[in-house]
Specification:
The complex is a heterodimer of chains A (228) and B (447). Chain A has 228 residues and is mainly alpha-helical. Chain A contains ten helices and four strands; from the N terminus they run H-H-E-E-H-H-H-H-E-E-H-H-H-H. Classes of the chains: A mainly alpha (228), B mainly alpha (447).
Chain lengths: 228, 447
């Protein structure tokens, strides 16, 4: 039977050997992190963004690189998925973007701070994370998607689908109604007025004024009116 | 209680109970928020509730460990603490730092780094505080009449825990590097040196409660902590799968994490075996129940449920979901909360002279808290698996998935009610024991 002395030797030897390996691997990891994380792209702005992310405990609700709390969306690919404009509007007034949904603190960031956070999220999104987050491999490709008119403006995916659904994709339970058939319901002029200032058309609406530029509105109106 | 200075342990335990109560309260705030009732959002947003919940946990466990050390070390070393007054200074400063941190979280004053939210200026105070603690414990062992393996392992665990706080204070600009060092603290604490502390406390309790031969108990202590480090140190790799560190961590983390349950399994088998081997029939049955329960539930929560989502192929999908919360709750409860509660249950009758450990309240506390926590784990598990499937496999939007799984949080809150009623019973029983009494000094009753 094992003696106390040999048990102690096992403990000490095991600890020393594994800790030694751990140190070697740590040193090697630090050599490789700059390339894997594109450290050359880590701008002053992105670093300020990281500190803002820490100072406001964003991880207390969100996950980033899968780490944090499980109350709010994973942010690693947010820049790629939503784009800078969406993130900026979300940081300006979270409740305006998701009325009646789970709440986020309104932080009163300056314009520069918002840009810093966007730069940070962009940098994080470009890190090689060994395949995380995984692509949803059981995603049902919606039949009706193929029936949608072509040349969909990117803003539909980036912004509209957060509240509306279209062709079975996007937010099924609102707060916005489905966009299918919106072209036969409303005329071009109405859609234009609605997108420019929803509050003016329907006071008290939950639809935020997205402050879109004329070009985007034109693009959207032309696309939406094709949804018959 | 043999020595006067052991009394200070009582106050650390009392602080533990207070922080534990706050932790549970804020847990309910989060549970209700997940169900859609976030009425407190304006005053206590989710990130505040979360920081209070996890930091209270860390603080009450540390306070419990410190109390345990102040209780065990004089007994093992057969002498008073080298400076009991300094121990009270350390207690009060620890409580003050904790309270300031908790209040700060309500005013957006923190470092938003999971589990290490305490703001930097307070980190330095924590370091000073812990240095005093290490000096007191180390000095007492240094001047001891006898050296026991239990006291050496306990001291080594506490010392390493203090040293490993430091990597968390490195300033970084990269999220990847930040995360890398953060796990040096968090992982090497909970899956490394805290297990040493837990193993030593468990060994002490089993020697006292079952009368098992010290040589046998301490031999197994070495084997268990040996397995802990053998698997746990390189097991840190399971936090380095998906944070921008090299791919070899997937293999190293996967293999060594798979070995991690061994230490807990060893602990569970050893506790049950020793219970049957021991010839002593100690009257404090509840302390033994908590000790054995701790060994078993730590295997289930930390060992088995940890293993369940630690393989890289699985973790790719479960990483950053409620599955982690499932494992986290039973792991912390089984391994660390229960060992602190076991020691408190053992120490209280000695400190206060009141024999309330086997009261109906005490028995109810044990069953209700444990059954409630197991139910909570199941609720988190169901919510987590549903979330993984809907969000990671089917690709639904985060918020849509959250509204789908709201109902499981009703289950969670109901389970939490069962759990909390047990915890309230325990805290109430603690209060009913009253203050430590000088007449107990030198008394051999209930040792």
């Amino acid at each position: 039977m094992l003696s106390k002395k040999s048990a102690r030797t096992f403990f000490i030897a095991g600890t020393v050997i594994t800790f030694g390996c751990f140190i070697v691997l740590t040193i090697d990891t630090f050599k490789k992190i700059p390339a894997q994380t594109n450290q050359h792209n880590l701008s002053e702005s992105a670093i300020r963004g990281k500190h803002l992310f820490d100072q406001n405990n964003c991880m207390g609700c969100h996950t980033i690189m899968g780490e944090g709390a499980y109350y709010a969306p994973e942010l690693t690919k947010t820049y790629e998925k939503r784009g800078a404009k969406f993130i900026e509007m979300m940081l300006t007034d979270p409740e305006k973007m998701f009325p009646g949904k789970r709440k986020m603190v309104k932080y009163n960031f300056t314009a520069q701070e918002k840009q810093d956070l966007i730069a940070f999220l962009k940098w994080v999104g470009e890190i090689d994370l060994n395949g995380f987050p995984p692509k949803p491999d059981l995603q049902v490709s919606q039949q009706s998607v193929s029936n949608l008119p072509g040349n969909q403006p990117s803003i539909i995916q980036d912004m509209c689908m957060s509240c509306h659904s279209l062709g079975g994709q996007g937010s099924q339970e609102g707060p916005g109604p489905a966009l299918d058939g919106v072209g036969s319901k409303y005329g071009v002029e109405y859609l234009r007025r609605w997108l420019s200032n929803p509050e003016e058309v329907k006071p008290g609406t939950e639809m935020p004024n997205l402050e879109l530029d004329k070009e985007t509105i034109d693009e959207l109106v032309s696309y939406l009116s094709k949804l018959k | 209680m043999k020595y006067n200075s052991q009394k200070v342990a009582y106050w650390f335990f009392a602080l533990s109970m207070l922080l534990f109560g706050i932790q549970i309260t804020y847990g309910f705030i989060m549970g209700f928020a997940h169900m859609g009732f976030d009425v407190l959002h304006g005053w206590i947003p989710f990130n505040t509730a979360r920081a209070v919940h996890t930091n209270c946990l860390v603080m009450w466990l540390l306070s419990g460990f410190m109390g345990a050390a102040y209780f065990i070390i004089p007994d093992e070393c057969e002498r008073e603490l080298i400076n009991p007054k300094l121990a009270y200074v350390q207690l009060i400063s620890f409580a003050i730092v904790g309270v300031i941190a908790l209040i700060g979280f309500h005013f957006n004053w923190w470092e938003g780094r999971k589990f290490l939210e305490i703001p930097r200026p307070l980190d330095y105070l924590v370091v000073i505080n812990v240095l005093i603690f290490i000096y007191l414990i180390g000095g007492t062992i240094w001047k001891a009449k006898r050296y026991t393996t239990t006291s050496i392992v306990l001291f080594f665990g506490l010392l390493m825990a203090a040293l490993l706080y430091l990597p968390g204070m490195l300033n970084t600009v990269s999220q990847t590097v930040d995360s890398f060092w953060r796990w040096w603290v968090v992982h090497l604490w909970v899956e490394g040196v805290w297990e040493l502390i837990m193993g030593a406390i468990l060994s002490y309790l089993l020697i006292k409660l079952t009368g098992v031969d010290r040589e046998i108990a301490e031999k197994w202590l070495y084997v268990i902590v040996g397995f802990t480090f053998l698997s746990g140190i390189l097991g840190t790799g399971h936090h380095y799968y998906y944070i921008g560190t090299p791919k070899y961590w997937l293999i190293i983390g996967g293999v060594f994490s798979a070995l991690e349950p061994l230490a807990f399994l060893g602990m569970a088998i050893y506790a049950v075996k020793v219970k049957n081997l021991g010839e002593r029939n100690h009257p404090n049955k509840m302390a033994l129940a908590w000790s054995i329960g701790c060994a078993i539930l730590s295997f289930v929560g930390a060992g088995f449920l940890g293993f369940a989502h630690t393989l890289p192929q699985v973790n790719l999908y479960t990483h950053g979901t409620l599955v982690t919360a499932m494992h986290g709750h039973l792991a912390f409860w089984g391994a660390y909360a229960m060992i602190v509660i076991a020691l408190i249950t053992y120490a209280l009758p000695q400190l206060t002279g009141r024999k309330l450990h086997d009261s109906k309240l005490g028995v109810f506390a044990f069953w209700s808290a444990n059954i409630g926590m197991i139910m909570m784990t199941i609720a988190f598990g169901i919510a987590g698996v549903a979330q993984v499937y809907l969000e990671r496999k089917l690709g639904l939007e985060f918020l849509s998935v959250q509204s789908e799984i709201e109902v499981h949080f009703l289950g969670l809150v109901l389970a939490a009610l069962v759990f909390s009623s047990g915890c309230i019973a325990f805290i109430w029983n603690f209060v009913k024991h009253g203050m430590p009494r000088d007449t107990q000094i030198g008394s051999k009753v209930y040792e």
